[in-house]
Amino acid sequence: MTIITDALCPFCGCVCDDLTIIVENNKITDIKNACKLGASKIMGHHRIKAPMMRADKKSDFKEVSFDEAINEAAQILFKSKRPLMYGWASALCEVHKKGILLAEEVGAIIDNTATVCHAPSTLAVHEKGLPSATLGQVKNRSDVTVFWGSNPVHAHPRHMGRYSVFAKGFFQEKGRKGRKVIVVDVRKTETAAMADEFVQLQQGSDYLVISALRAILSGHADVVPESVGGVPKEQLVKLVDTLKAAKFGSIFFGMGLTQSISRYKNIDNAISLITELNAFTKYVISPMRGHYNVTGFGQVCTWETGFATAVDFARGAPYYNPGETAANDVLLRKETDAAMIIAGDAGAHFPADSVRHLARIPVVQIDPYWNPTTEVSNVVIPVAICGVEVEGTAYRMDGVSLRMRKMIEPTLPTDVEVLDRITERVRELRGE
Ligand code: SF4
Predict the structure, then answer these.
(1) What CATH class is the domain 119-287?
(2) Would you kindly state where each structural domain of the chain is located, as residue ranges?
(3) Whose C-alpha lies nearest to ligand 1, atom 5?
(4) Atom number, ligand 1, closest to the C-alpha of residue 33
(5) For residue range 55-112, what is the model confidence (pLDDT) as tens digits?
């Protein structure tokens, strides 16, 4: 029996690094400290056992060799005039690097899961920057914590316990008792039920409410109407007083802010609110990134291409214009004629019209798990699980890079090996 301590969890953006893993005969038999989401991923479920192919989407899959599947994947990408390579958030940075190289080789658009979650945050950060902090600073210092359009109880189950609410920190010895927790959301979530103050706003009114808070903060409460976005002015004034009273305040925002009306302008406005709060006291703002290494893709893509996501290599050089070059833009316009989905699940998370288009075109899936994308795929290549069977680098939601450990030996090839072999085969097809 082997006991691995201080192991990292490859599920959500918290990347908890205090797990204990019990391994017997190359099998994980027990996990300590992980939440249910992390434990379920590490223990493995719905694994794809062997490569599979089918002639058309109505036929059943037939098991094939890795050579056949890799050859077919390379043929699909090689023949495509407008390939899309999407996913990446549940893979390590080493995989991202190989994927960007392959995208360049075949002139693909490469995009990641942020396109349906925090890509608007990236656009706002381009314009305003991000006054942020590590989760360690939040744990040690934050005495007012705001969750805006995010529900960590469900999506990041150990965030509140390890970093933001219940954790005891260097300057926050009392843990929960020393912190004020505010939730701003359109409905009373599980997180809201645990908060000191819940601000319920009407759907799509985040921009208005942030603007009202900024007006009150700058001494212009007189121009704010009696109710903004369904929130009484009195509650907004009280909220500004609470925010100003903090010694160190932090706002964690989620898809309730990034994907509601006004999208990136919501984040832009929220960053301005933070900048203005910093005239009174110390404030930081952070996105609640979902998958454990969605932040890492943004990093690798930026240092490789100059852009964080939605990069189009059709011209031979990186071109980026979200709204034109993001995964759903090319799918909804029916522009892309083949797709490779890796370490992400477009079938589960994309709009119905995008998934319908994926069902019409050749799709290659590279993933350890059977998921809705498998149902629209022609070629399925199973791989080892990054962060469980493969070591490498991931970026936590606060941008801190961490080294993921290998817990057991893989029985399937790694993403890097598969991408290397597809790239090699594409070059052969080109006669190189
Ligand atoms: S909170 Fe996230 S990173 Fe931590 S154990 Fe749960 S799923 Fe894993």
Answers:
(1) alpha beta
(2) 2-41, 47-116+292-429, 119-287
(3) 34
(4) 5
(5) 888 899 999 999 999 999 999 999 999 999 999 999 999 999 999 999 999 999 999 9
